[in-house]
Design goal:
Protein name (chains B, E): NitT/TauT family transport system ATP-binding protein
Mean pLDDT of chain A: 82
Membrane topology (chains B, E): Peripheral membrane protein
Number of strands of chain A: 12
Largest sheet of chain B: 6 strands, mixed
Radius of gyration of chain A: 19 Å
Distance between the termini of chain B: 32 Å
Low-confidence stretches of chain A: 1-12
Strand order of the largest sheet of chain A: 2-1-3-11-4
Mean pLDDT of chain B: 88
Low-confidence stretches of chain B: 253-261
Subcellular location (chains B, E): Cell membrane
Number of strands of chain B: 10
Strand order of the largest sheet of chain B: 6-7-8-3-9-10
Distance between the termini of chain A: 38 Å
Oligomer: heteropentamer
Chains: A alpha/beta (about 300), B alpha/beta (about 260), C mainly alpha (about 250)
Order of helices and strands of chain B: EEEHEEEHHHEHEHEEH
Structural class of chain B: alpha/beta
Shape of chain A: globular
Number of helices of chain A: 14
Bound molecules: adenosine-5'-triphosphate, magnesium ion
Keywords (chains B, E): ATP-binding, Cell membrane, Membrane, Nucleotide-binding, Transport
Number of helices of chain B: 7
GO cellular component, one term (chains B, E): plasma membrane
Radius of gyration of chain B: 19 Å
């Protein structure tokens, strides 16, 4: 049955194992550092890597993992469908760049061209939408295309797309091999954009509240460690992320890991955008979906 | 000749349905077979010989009439009446000896008894040293002999043979015909044999049923009064040849050209 | 005598492959990172072998493959032998099989995760689905097409039930079942990768996804080559097994 | 007479499927959002039909399928007829084919995107790969196994070259080629979904991925059913075509 | 009998390799065939009859010696010498008429001429009304007649037949044998015929070559001096029968049981 494999069972003497899903991207670095530093005591942490968001969501929805660092919009979709999830922290702030090929000098140049995003429901799509609007263009002026992130640098290099907007380090890859350049950083378009968040199953939060708190304490701490973006952080991250240091350094330059609290006004802006773009009719409200109690206690 | 009736076919008819057309294949067939007899059913291709044999063996149910084996209606195939198929029907995945043992496995015999009986009948057909080989390693003639051994091993009251030697060359055919007569005499088996070879029928049989087609009927029954073994070039043999051939020619008026027997 | 010739052919074939590959890169002028040349892939393979990654992933994949394939084969042959003898029941179940068969096992993955969780099971289940239908359908049709003569002989010798299946139907149908097994090995191995690309955390398919996500296309290519080679060996192994059984059972 | 029986069987089969499906939900107590019941899927199908989505996606998929399948079939038969008559060349190329065949077409997707871009091409290429090898291999083996008697007759009548291929080899090999075509339809349709899950913006595979991403598992199930039904119909259509050709050419 | 030599086989030998063993199949075969003759090659299964015929037709190259057709070495199969195969070799995807036209398509004929010629020979074999049917709709005997028409349509100098009537039942066989003699007389074709049926050989041939196996040699050549058409039950016919049978028995000392011809 559903949830059978939920690992976090509360048997007394054995330490429970928390399973958290992730994709190998720069946005999940705090998770990597938390596991590497292994400061927690009340539980075992198992990070489960997935090949794509779709598979990660399936696992999360069916209770095969207790939580995940994932695109917030996808979690909101699940919530809307009746899966009990809570967003408890951000995965990162900023750190999404709009990469284009070297011939594109402004938004106007993108008109009529193909532009890749990982997902219709991603914050990247919203960023693209706002960017176009801010430059006096319509969303329909570019042809937005969903592509697996790993294919984007190749597609850009081969001239199949004019640009892309996706999680790191895939933006940095193109910049590092001189096949692309940064047209905009996300904070220029939408300050306080919410992208990847740490999501936990409500079931887990209710049954193992203390453990959840401990997990969150060290998550916040790991975020602060990550914010140093030093050699140490790079080493720990590279256990999960197989990229050159040059790419990673670029990636780190654009991102921030301090203050991982989800702010209500940012969230409102997100839901407004979703409704405005017609991507979601009834996005869950801030109260329903965001649970800041852990991060607030951790501070 | 022993005068116990073993097979008794009574007013038997059979038709097949073909695309909602009813094709009468056998009509009102009646005959008796005595214990120890060799009877041939002779007829052209498609006249219903195989169908008749299948009905006698219980493989096909007649539409009308009945077949009695020792006075009891035949409703299903059974071990007392073994059919030999034209393509020999040996199981390619079993060695020669295990093929012969196949029918014995249903009897209450120990493995040793089974093996002994199989070897006895393999010896009878002259293949005692081939028991461990596989059928595909045998020539056509040898395969047919294995089939005969397999049938005999069950000591059936009746053996049905459907064109048993049609696939063999003349020399092997002659040889196996002699073998069959020798074994038949030794075991006193009753045999019903389907063939389209006039010589074969005359050479082997005590009686010949001549079938005519559309629908299949037994047109004539001929007693062969020659002593066995017979001489194919003897005048009497030629008499029967000519006689039977005339029977068939009579039935084929559509043939423009004269046959020269 | 025939082995050297095959070996020469294989070597010649591989040589052609490498030349075409390298030529494509030179003519197309592709970036190394996007379309790695043979040499770099060779290095990739060596590094994967050296750190044991390749072997570990292969082992995981292979065990999953065995689990999925063997359980599918056993169940499918068992059901096939029964259903082949029950034309009425098969008449009803056949449409269901026909409906499910054309669906890519990967399409089921949301439900597979729901029922079987994550880890080894999804890949095993996908391989199971991929092998089950070819074997079931070929078993049913093999059983239906068992030579009438054999069935008549069995009737004549008064064989019934389990004895009939064991002594006549199964051995007579086996060459066609074996053919189904052979096809199923190919299909299942192909879907192994697809299966492991979805929801697995190890195995050759995962190796490819992970290398892709890390933008290491040389390792992707290495994984592809390795899957090709091991699929080929697996196919040959099943072929040998088929021949061996056929020989043992006195077939050509 | 036989059509009503088949219809009854199909209806009975579907009924069983629905009952088992509903029973699974009742017994397992699954969340509706995770394992939608038949009724909800039925509604999903209706809504997809009503707003035309289903038809649009089906059309896209079907055209891609035709493009990939037909081009693969033409090329594979053409090459197969040549290679079947050139045993030495085939000896060298065969290992390459054998090596590439067991690789899931999906594994190539990074390279497919590199070479063929995005849009329709990746799905078409994946279908092409999935159909190409079964047809090539069955054509080569059909050509190799053309009845010696026919070849002797051709020799005797002094037929050569193109005439020989056109009048003897192709028609003699056709039933086996057709069998390969039939198998290839199944395989290609299965990979259509997988192909459209990667990088496509439309089509039945995309419909499934998209529904999955929107957490609409009822639509996923609707897509699966639709893929099953249309795959089944496609298979039957190829079967009819096969029969028609065989009848036209005087075979059973 | 016309005395122009058409086929001349000289000191011809052939062996096959089987698993690195060399199996001599034909050894030192020499014979001539005259124009218009019907010659039978008679021998047991496996004695090399088919191989010999294949070599004469140019389908197989001999190891030693040569085959001359009209004085020229035969190196490849060609239209002047047509082989009829035991399984008839009709193309199932062509209608009867198109099968007959197959050989004509290589000649410089218009479609109309081709069709006329095909219909002429179909009429000769009594199948002029079956031209638009497919081979599978024909009986075995009809299929063999189509094969004969196809061969004749090319007006070859020589027809080779490999056990042409072996698959037919006795009645059809007799009928086709008569047909063959009639057509042969009308067209004056030279025929070499392989068979394992003594009666068939005597009934059809001007000369019979008797082959013995291991390796295949022509053991004896027999001129049949009977006028055609022949009577199978005539004393002279029986004389040849007995004579030929003794030839074979002589060669099979391993047979324990006496044959009764
Ligand atoms: N199962 C069947 N269904 C329909 N028709 C059948 C069936 N079995 C036989 N027939 C038809 O019945 C007729 C007699 O067939 P049968 O096989 O008994 O002939 P036969 O005398 O044995 O011929 P042959 O010498 O060619 O074996 C044929 O016309 C055949 O087509
Ligand atoms: N291509 C071949 N390769 C190897 N051996 C062969 C080949 N063709 C024939 N033989 C062998 O040569 C011998 C003579 O064969 P052939 O077919 O000429 O005999 P046959 O007299 O026509 O027999 P049958 O009456 O059975 O047709 C047999 O032992 C056969 O196994
Ligand atoms: Mg019959
Ligand atoms: Mg021969």
């Amino acid at each position: 049955g559903a949830g059978e494999d939920t690992a976090a069972d509360s048997s007394s003497d054995e330490k429970p194992t928390i399973k958290i899903g992730y994709l190998p991207i720069t946005h999940a670095v705090p998770l990597f550092i938390e596991e590497q530093e292994e400061k927690y005591e009340g539980f075992n942490l198992e990070l489960v890597k997935f090949g794509s968001w779709t598979e990660l969501i399936d696992a999360l929805n069916t209770g095969n993992i207790d939580g995940a660092s994932m695109l917030v919009t996808l979690a909101m979709k699940s919530k809307e469908q009746g899966i009990d999830l809570k967003a408890v922290a951000l995965g990162h702030r900023d750190g999404n760049v709009l990469v284009t090929n070297n011939d594109i000098d402004n938004a106007e140049d993108l008109k009529g061209k193909k532009f890749a995003i990982p997902h219709k429901f991603s914050s990247h799509n919203i960023l693209l939408y706002h960017m176009l609007k801010q430059n006096g263009l319509e969303y329909e002026d570019v042809e937005a295309i969903e592509l697996p992130p790993a294919e984007m640098p190749a597609a850009l290099a081969e001239g199949r797309i004019a640009g892309y907007l996706v999680a790191e380090p895939f933006g940095a890859v193109s910049v590092a091999i001189d096949q692309g350049k940064v047209l905009y950083q996300d904070q220029e378009v939408w300050p306080g954009s919410i992208d990847c968040t740490l999501v936990l199953r409500e079931e887990f939060i209710e049954e193992q509240n203390e453990i959840a708190q401990e997990f969150m304490d060290y998550y916040v701490e790991a975020g602060e460690t990550a914010e140093h973006k030093d050699e140490h952080a790079y080493e720990m991250a590279s256990e999960y992320l197989d990229v050159d240091q040059e790419v990673m350094d670029l990636s780190f330059k654009w991102i921030a890991y301090d203050d991982l609290r989800i702010h209500e006004d940012d969230y409102e802006q997100l839901t407004d955008s979703l409704v405005e773009m017609g991507l979601q009719d009834n996005p869950p409200s801030y109260e329903e979906f965001v649970d800041n109690s852990f991060i607030d206690k951790a501070k | 000749m022993n005068q116990t009736t073993i097979i008794n076919v009574e007013k038997m008819s059979k038709s097949f349905e073909k695309k909602s057309e009813v094709l009468p294949v056998l009509k009102n067939i009646t005959f008796d077979i005595q214990k120890g007899e060799v009877v041939s059913i002779l007829g052209e291709s498609g006249c219903g010989k195989s169908t008749l044999l299948n009905i006698v063996g219980g493989f096909v149910t007649p539409d009308e009439g009945n077949v009695y084996l020792d006075g009891k209606v035949v409703e299903q195939p059974n071990r007392r009446c073994i059919m030999l198929f034209q393509d020999y029907g040996l199981l390619p995945w079993r060695s020669v000896r295990h093929n012969v043992e196949l029918g014995l496995e249903g009897l209450k015999l120990t493995a040793k008894e089974r093996k002994e009986r199989a070897l006895y009948y393999l010896k009878l057909v002259g293949l005692e040293d081939k028991g461990e080989l596989f059928p595909k390693e045998m020539s056509g003639g040898m395969q047919q002999r294995i089939g005969i051994a397999r049938a005999l091993a069950l000591r059936p009251e009746l053996i049905l043979m459907d064109e048993p030697f049609a696939a063999l060359d003349t020399f092997n055919r002659y040889y196996l015909q002699d073998e069959l007569l020798r074994i038949q005499e030794q075991e006193d088996t009753t045999i019903i044999l389907v063939t389209h070879d006039i010589d074969e029928a005359i050479y082997l049989s005590d009686r010949i049923f001549i079938m005519h087609p559309n629908p299949g009927i037994i047109h004539k029954e001929i007693n062969i009064e020659l002593a066995k073994p017979r001489d194919r070039s003897h005048g009497d043999f030629q008499y029967y040849r000519k006689y039977i051939f005339e029977e068939f020619r009579f039935n084929r008026p559509e043939m423009a050209i004269d046959f020269n027997i | 005598m025939s082995i050297p010739k095959t070996t020469i052919n294989i070597i010649a074939g591989m040589a052609i492959l490498l030349v075409v590959w390298q030529a494509l890169i030179l003519i197309g002028g592709y970036e190394e990172a996007l379309f790695p040349p043979p040499l770099r892939v060779g290095e990739g393979i060596l590094s994967l072998i050296a750190d044991g990654t390749l072997f570990t992933h292969f082992q995981v994949s292979f065990l999953r493959f065995l689990a999925g394939y063997i359980s599918a084969v056993i169940l499918a042959i068992f059901l096939g032998l029964i259903l082949g003898r029950m034309p009425l029941l098969w008449g009803v179940l056949n449409p269901i099989a026909q409906l499910i068969r054309p669906v890519s096992p990967v399409a089921w993955s949301p439900f597979i995760v729901l029922w079987f969780g994550i880890g080894n099971m999804p890949a095993i289940v996908i391989i199971f689905i991929a092998s089950f239908f070819p074997v079931l359908l070929s078993t049913v049709s093999a059983v239906k097409n068992v030579d009438q003569t054999y069935l008549k002989i069995a009737q004549n010798f008064e064989m019934k039930g389990f004895e009939l299946v064991k002594k006549i139907i199964f051995p007579a149908a086996f060459p066609y079942i074996a053919n189904g097994l052979h096809i199923a090995v190919g299909t299942a191995w192909i879907f192994l990768v697809a299966g492991e690309m979805v929801g697995a955390q190890s195995g050759l398919g995962y190796l490819i996804v992970d290398a892709r996500n890390s933008m290491r296309l040389d390792l992707v290519m290495a994984g592809i080559l390795f899957i090709g080679v091991s699929g080929l060996l697996l196919d040959k192994a099943v072929g040998l097994f088929e021949n061996w059984i056929n020989k043992k059972w006195g077939r050509t």
